[in-house]
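writing this on my phone so excuse typos. first protein, seq and then structure
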Amino acid sequence: MWEVQSYKDFSRGRKDWVENPAENIEKTIRLWPQSMKGEGHYIAVLKKVDGDFDPRLKLAQPKVDSNMLKHYKEFAKETLNFIPTGKYITFNDQLYILPEETLSLDKLKVVRPGLHLGTFKKNRFEKPASTSTIVKSRGSEK
């Protein structure tokens, strides 16, 4: 675990608050909601050691609506400078893309699982404002 830089109103992790504390818990940070805006957060910066892999970890196997993906790819081919690669995932009528190495999102409450690619409405694909940075300019070659 890497040391997290501390600032005003940050609190270090404390061994005396947990029954079986993780090694180096004092390198972690707790952000209290009464000290700053937000709901409070806990920060731990983990360091991967080469060769270490926990067999209990699984990669994400996202579900994607094939009709939505078809409309997105048509839109992307006509509109974008490139088509982002990764794992596509749909949440209701929203399409996102995850990095290839994303771990499973099972049992997690996720607001935005990745890069928001757009919304599927009335048999058409609508891009979000964030996509404007990769949209082809007028006169650019396809």
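second protein below, same order as before
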Amino acid sequence: MAKTIDKQTMLNLIVEAKRTDPETGGFAEWLAEYLAEHLPTLTPPNEPLTLDELRKMKDEPTYLKVFDPLLKSGWHIVEAVTEDKIIFRGWQTVYVPIDGMGVDYNLYRRPPEGKEDIK
């Protein structure tokens, strides 16, 4: 997972950038490009959630990506994680077996971007 942006790291990069190329025209634009290259992304990677992460997500939304093209992927609210299943909140009981994670489905914080066959 990418590290968070640290204020001191950013200030050090600004000072370093100014020292290494003080004659830069359009400094604000150049600095933005320099920082974008050297600082981690603000958006965390969208890796499949682990059981430990899911256990901490009670009452939070998760995106269920089902690998079977005949079944529909979509958003669900985590109600509970038991020894053998992940239970979602709803007007009828919906759950997925834990042993299907990574085989039949994955759960994400947000929908996988531009990838149809994520496993």
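The radius of gyration is 21 Å. thats all i got for now
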